[in-house]
Design a protein that fits this description.
The strands form 4 sheets. A 4-stranded mixed beta sheet has the order 1-4-5-13, sandwiched between helices. It has a 4-stranded antiparallel beta sheet with strand order 6-9-11-7, sandwiched between helices. The longest helix has 17 residues. Helix 5 crosses helix 12, helix 12 crosses helix 13 and helix 15 runs antiparallel to helix 16. It has 435 residues and is of the alpha/beta class. The chain starts with a helix and ends with a strand. It has 16 helices and 13 strands. The model has no long low-confidence stretch (mean pLDDT 96). The site of uracil (URA) has 10 residues, from helix 9.
């Protein structure tokens, strides 16, 4: 069989359906370097514009999943669960969640992503912990799980290398908002983990990749089908991303907020999602009779300090310095902090939450090109929240910046993100649960 990538690109760009062989040929060739970046970019653009059938999506996901090795736990009888989100602004839930779930006896082999577009990535956030290593080999993942119950890992040359390459290329091209591209990216990573249970967090609102809840539900259904095909028990929550989650947006600042959450403190919306997802993970993995009882166990793991104890082990295991749990000055800190104030009195609203993410990218806290380094210290800390009454001159957030770099662009983006006006109803933090 002779397959030519140029014919595949033309077929998809013209709205045709690709055969299973063509999809497998593409994934194999892109990973081994025989298909060039420009050719892969053209095909991604075609998929972005034309979509994929259910069969094409299943084949793409399975080809990506098998582009490397799949974790196998034959000698590891413990139950395993994970959670993944479609990405957001200030979405740091995975970081306190994984140790809390492990503290309740369920392992979390978590393969995550880096920042994508205007959203921050779990891996980049963890790497703001000095020394923390996320590029783990399979042996290191198994050892971390044995010792701590958690492995925070990146896609590597061995593990879902297809997503490693396609994810970075989509970020550089700005080709993210596509149901088949998001579903295959998330599910290839998650299904490579050998897990029993999976909770998916599909965001909606102006900071989400798919703003409309209906499109989010379509993505949810596609991912649930893929989970079912691999016998993984899964459910989806649709949660609010029309406003930032928690107070901190920016890598090291968010790690600080995760530590607060594990100390039983910090913002309520973050804690609420950690308890909800953790309870569901315990239930789906068969470790709790109901998700409500699971959530109580997660709350207890946090409030007793056991979850923090696991996080300390995880930091140590993955090469970081656990002293930062007690001494935040060990986290990267921006040289300058300045307040951003309300220009009028009224009710605070976020009309374009995506611009909040872009404001942090402007400060250096995100990538504009594939090779960009991230400044982990910069970002925002919100003092006031959506739906609150504010007065002119109130500090809405603190901007943590590096000698003014990107500051005026950040301020303009914040102006575009926020509106102070009449009282309005906020969408619920948790809109729906699908399974
Ligand atoms: N998270 C992923 O892993 N991939 C996407 O495409 C979006 C969010």
């Amino acid at each position: 069989l002779i397959v030519d990538i140029r014919a595949i690109v033309l077929e998809k760009c013209g709205g045709g359906e690709l055969s299973d062989d063509e999809i497998r040929f593409f994934v194999r060739g892109y990973v081994d370097g025989t298909i060039a970046e420009a050719q892969a970019a053209a095909l991604l653009a075609g998929i972005f514009a034309r979509g994929m059938s259910e069969r094409e999506l299943a084949t793409l996901t399975h080809a990506m999943l098998h582009s490397g090795s799949v974790l196998s736990f034959e000698e590891h009888p413990q139950r395993k669960a994970d959670k993944h989100s479609t990405g957001g602004i200030g979405d740091k839930v995975s970081i306190p969640l994984a140790p809390a779930v492990a503290a309740c006896g369920v392992c979390v082999p978590m393969i995550s992503g880096r920042g994508l577009g205007h959203t921050g990535g779990t891996l980049d956030k963890l790497e703001s912990i000095p020394g923390f290593k996320v590029e783990l080999g399979e042996d290191e993942i198994h050892r971390a799980l044995d010792r701590t119950g958690v492995a925070f890992a990146a896609q590597t040359e061995e593990l879902v290398p297809a997503d490693r390459k396609l994810y970075a290329l989509r970020d550089a091209l700005g080709l993210v908002e596509s149901i088949p591209l998001i579903a295959s990216s998330i599910m290839s990573k998650k299904l490579a983990e050998g897990i029993d249970a999976l909770v998916l967090d599909v965001k909606f609102g102006s900071g989400a990749f798919l703003r409309e809840p209906e499109r989010g539900a379509e993505l949810a259904r596609a991912m649930l089908k893929l989970a079912q095909s691999m016998n993984v028990r899964a459910c989806v929550f649709q949660t609010a991303m029309d406003r930032p989650l928690g107070n901190a947006v920016g890598h090291a600042l968010e790690i600080g907020e995760c530590i607060d959450c594990l100390a039983g403190e910090g913002p309520q919306d973050l804690r609420q999602l950690v308890l909800l997802f953790g309870g569901e993970m315990l239930h789906l993995a068969g470790a709790s009779p109901s998700s409500e009882q699971g959530a109580e166990r997660i709350a207890d793991a946090i409030d007793s300090g056991r979850a923090m104890g696991v996080f300390e082990l995880v930091i140590r295991e993955q090469g970081g310095d656990p002293r930062l749990l007690k001494d935040r000055s060990l986290l990267p800190r921006a040289s300058d902090v300045e307040p951003w104030k309300a220009s009028a009195g009224g009710t605070l609203g976020f009309v374009d939450n995506r611009a909040v993410g872009r404001a942090v990218v402007a400060l250096g806290g995100g990538r504009r090109a594939k090779s960009d380094a991230i400044d982990p210290a910069v970002g925002l800390v919100w003092h006031r929240h959506a739906g609150e009454r504010v007065e002119r001159g109130d500090v809405l957030c603190e901007i943590h910046h590096r000698g003014g770099k990107g500051l005026s662009e950040c301020r303009s983006l914040l102006d575009a993100a926020v509106e102070i006006g009449a009282p309005h109803a906020l969408p619920p933090l948790v809109l729906a649960r699908l399974e």
